[in-house]
Amino acid sequence: MNTHFYKAAKYLKFIPINLLRKLTSQSVVLPFYHTVSDTESLHIKHLYQTKSIKQFEKELDFLLKNFQPIDFLEYSKSILEGIPLKNRFLLTFDDGLSEFYTVIAPILKRKGIPAMNFLNSAFVDNKDLFYRYKISVIIEKLQTSSFSDSTKQAIKLWFLEQGTTLNDYHKGLLRVTYQQKNTLDNLAQVISLDFKDYLKKEEPYLTTKQINELTEQGFHFGAHSIDHPPFHTISLEDQLRQTKESIHTISSNFRLTYNTFSFPFTDFNVSKTFFDEIESNVGLTFGCAGLKNDSVNFNKQRIPFEIDGFNGEEILRGEYLYYIFKSLLKKNTIHRN
């Protein structure tokens, strides 16, 4: 997404949302977040900026002023049965982070907004930590701790083995790929960082007990892969395994009557063959490419509302402007090969 359109949206707030809906014929929007908090979480601190409670509530009020919230099951039924919707928004969250229980759900209940949360099956109950979150915790440790000369040498050697230097450790760590994630555990051991201890103390993820409580309160849950790989970097066989196994685990563990999935990172370059293979396993799937159409009818694109430097209103207006621009080029639909 070109942020120039978000910047332009800052100066075009006088354009009514209703007019943007009419110009684009896009009256249903799917904003999504990861978490909301007034407290800084080390596993997120060095990856992206978390929305504050005040910012989140303001964005919800903006959405409520211009759209009606819709429950996931109602939305799913409308898509699968071809029932038209008008001026609605479906709110979703990725990663199954614990703030959904402690911070977000109480706000949503107070405002009468249903929501969907997508879980990584390997992380529920704080059994493991997403490799990108490990990177953020390691960066914090390197920034705030003192090390012996021998430890400094071991750290330097680790970075040299990754093809970078200790002077560029922030960028070097952020370049670590999913396929290299085990090396993060090696570095953690060098700097005396215990991820199991971090998981136990911080409890970054929802627990089974919390998810069951939230389900009873009317919130819905889906799968977000086993352990959050970028799908464009893994084989079709692994894509299918990550999808089918996580759907089965989440649906069976929480006795869900539906199957749904959101892609970790993005669904960029995911093939038509993949969608053909999983169609019988899932009702709807979700990407995060913004306000776009998709040639796969059951794959719906959401709008990321956590883009540094912009609020939700600016992001949504920017998406509408970008959609209008792309329509001139006839590039509003993602086509699968």
Question: Overview of this structure, please?
Answer:
With 337 residues, the protein is of the alpha/beta class. Helices cover 46% and strands 11% of the residues. The strands form 4 sheets. The protein has a 5-stranded parallel β-sheet. The chain is globular.
Write the layout of secondary structure elements.
Layout lengths: L3 H6 L7 H8 L3 E2 L1 E3 L8 H4 L7 H14 L1 E2 L2 H9 L7 E2 L2 E3 L4 H13 L4 E4 L11 H14 L4 H13 L7 H6 L7 H9 L4 H8 L5 H9 L3 E4 L12 H18 L6 E3 L9 H7 L5 E4 L5 E2 L4 E3 L1 E2 L7 H17 L4 E2 L3
Parallel strand pairs: 1-4, 2-5, 2-12, 3-4, 5-6, 6-7, 8-9, 9-11, 10-13
Helix pairs in contact: 2-15
Mean pLDDT: 95
Uncertain segments? none
Shape: globular
CATH topology (level 3) name of the largest domain: TIM Barrel
Derived from helix and strand composition plus strand pairing, the structural class reads alpha/beta
If classified by CATH, what would the architecture of the largest domain be?
Alpha-Beta Barrel
The biggest beta sheet, please? 5 strands, parallel
Helix tally equals 15
Total strands: 13
Strand order of the largest sheet: 7-6-5-2-12
The overall number of domains is: 2
Topology pattern, helix = H, strand = E: HHEEHHEHEEHEHHHHHHEHEHEEEEHE
Could you estimate the helical fraction of the residues in percent? 40-55%
N-C termini distance: 21 Å
Give Rg in angstroms: 21 Å
CATH class of the largest domain: Alpha Beta
Give the CATH H-level superfamily of the largest domain.
Glycoside hydrolase/deacetylase
